[in-house]
Design brief:
Blueprint lengths: L4 E3 L3 E8 L2 H9 L13 H9 L10 E9 H7 L6 E4 L10 E3 L8 E2 L8 E2 L6 H26 L4 H4 L8 E9 H11 L8 H17 L1 H8 L1
Parallel strand pairs: 1-5
Antiparallel strand pairs: 2-3, 3-8, 4-8, 6-7
Helix pairs in contact: 2-8, 6-7, 7-8
């Protein structure tokens, strides 16, 4: 049987981008016919644009990232329909035996409700944690064995993949303009609401990339 890998990280890698802080300012200044005039005083203008929600100026900047995450994270991410996506197909390609198991920092117990979750760490002696870990391992190993067996037997990928759980890692590209990346972060970076633990990790990695590429615009948005 192929060796199985277990991970607990969300991987988000920079692929390409367009635009800059200067582009945001130029897009705003074209309304007054001054977009081609050299002007390095852009922070105050961008702060005004973000504060007053003149967000069309942000749509001239785009970012593409490549993501490796469990399928359940990808499906939550792809609810943001303003992005463009392309994902590995389990119909055409053999999926890699890489599965997600929560690390020791992940809260396990929901003290809230389904609609308003309040996730907390278990205060027992570790029994709950060990049980969760063993359950993941048990399911993943057996699911992969059946997937492997079916493919070796000649069963089509699109049928064999049915037995794989949503904890298996997928890979996809995501592209959006800066305005829609900020909307994604607003819902997923963990500063407001109750986003899922794993997508918060992924969103914060996106935030790090945006901060590096668009330091002024990201900075005033984060304020």
């Amino acid at each position: 049987m192929t060796e199985i890998t277990f991970r607990s990280d969300m991987q988000v890698d920079y692929v390409q981008h367009t635009g800059s802080d200067e582009m945001v300012a130029r897009a705003a200044r074209v309304s007054t016919g001054s977009d081609l005039i050299e002007n390095d005083k852009i922070k105050g203008l961008i702060r005004y644009l973000v504060r007053e929600r003149h967000t069309s100026t942000l749509e001239h900047c785009t970012l593409t990232v490549r993501v490796e995450a469990p399928i359940f994270v990808a499906r939550e991410w792809m609810r943001h329909r303003t992005m463009s996506y392309n994902e590995i197909s389990g119909r055409y390609a053999e999926l890699a035996p890489v599965f997600y198991i929560p690390d020791g920092n992940r809260p396990l117990v929901n003290a809230g409700s389904g609609a308003h979750p309040d996730l907390q760490r278990s205060d027992d002696d570790g029994t709950l944690w060990r049980g969760m870990d063993e359950a993941h391992l048990w399911v993943y190993v057996r699911a992969w064995r059946q997937y492997d067996w079916m493919r070796d037997a000649g069963i089509a990928n699109e049928v064999a993949r049915n037995v794989l759980p949503v904890g298996i890692y997928t890979q996809f590209y995501a592209t959006a303009n800066l305005n829609n990346w900020f909307k994604f972060l607003h819902l997923r970076d963990g500063n407001e609401g109750s986003p899922q633990y794993e997508i918060v990790e992924a969103a914060n990695k996106v935030a790090g990339i945006l901060e590096e590429l668009y330091p002024v615009t990201y900075g005033v948005w984060a304020e």
